[in-house]
Design goal:
Distance between the termini of chain A: 18 Å
Low-confidence stretches of chain A: none
Order of helices and strands of chain A: EHEEEHEEHHHH
Oligomer: homodimer
Radius of gyration of chain A: 15 Å
Shape of chain A: globular
CATH architecture of chain A: 3-Layer(aba) Sandwich
Helix content of chain A: 25-40%
CATH class of chain A: Alpha Beta
Largest interface: A-B, 25 and 25 residues
């Protein structure tokens, strides 16, 4: 991991992206890093795209706001269109397969995988798409390790859903490793 | 409400303070304000006190970090001791009744009410202490109105707990109004 990585998770409300951000931050802190997790709500938050941000750093975090992200997760086309411009040059885009990614954006590293379809169809639970996405992010970036990510997931998901969420993580790892 | 208010919610992990911060921010945005909700995790986050922060502003929020808070909620003695120094002079301290508040800190506005006891004993559900606290904060500050706070609460709590959480909000309003 670089000294500081800025991650923006975007999609629609109800996709659990704030929880995803909290879990990622908690996994990072469990490894001894610093982390800030945040949501900004402006007038634009009232319709359409939702986002959550995580900054993970080996050092103390002085400036706590994500401007240009190193990694953008886009779970919907609306969110992709809204936030793609905020991805750093050379940054990583992880986009759900349902999204039409512009050829122009291919200058970034782009990983498109069926996160939502895997949640809804393979696991039968659309609500775990956020956890699958965390698995993809882990596999691609290794910003946290698998053990602390799993521990952070299990600490935050509803009791009784532990096995489902562990499976969701594994699906995320596989989506990423089979494509890279 | 002033143009910008900075709120720090502190206590122990598991008291639902991050969720409390998210709900407060979502209530604020529903009224047309801007809001940022965040958690910072440093090495100190690994033991003891936990905190979540909300900035609510009529204007766009340029500097997204809470330094000195206008309002500090302290749900545990450990959190109180850790964060009291970060309350602005003349700021508001809302502390659970279980906390020994130093006489020296009485320069601040201090409201001590039995948030945790009301949750655990009167409502029989310790987990709604965070929602009671939101009711107290609303009543004291009117930073959001009751309608948007209730809507934001109901949007975030588990299905089936709506009535319990509405009761928790009412208990919070009463705790604050019967003491001020």
């Amino acid at each position: 991991m670089d000294n500081r990585i800025e991650i923006r998770l975007s999609g629609s409300g109800g996709q659990g992206l704030i929880l995803g951000g909290i879990i990622l931050a908690e996994a990072a802190i469990n490894e001894g890093n610093n982390a800030i997790q945040s949501q900004s709500y402006g007038p634009e938050a009232r319709g359409g795209a939702s986002k959550a941000e995580v900054i993970i750093s080996r050092e103390e975090i002085d400036f706590p706001k994500v401007d240009k992200a190193d990694l953008l997760l886009a779970m919907t086309e609306v969110a992709y269109k809204k936030y793609i411009k905020s991805l750093k040059e050379g940054g990583i885009l992880i986009a759900d397969s349902s999204i039409n990614v512009d050829a122009e954006d291919k200058a970034y590293k782009v990983l498109q995988v069926p996160i939502i379809a895997t949640a809804a169809e393979k696991l039968g639970k659309a609500m775990v798409a956020n956890i699958i996405a965390l698995g993809v992010i882990q596999q691609v970036t290794e910003v946290v390790n698998k053990e602390s990510l799993e521990a952070a997931v299990l600490n935050r998901v509803p009791r009784g859903t532990e096995e489902l969420n562990k499976t969701a993580l594994s699906e995320g790892y596989m989506l990423a490793s089979s494509t890279f």
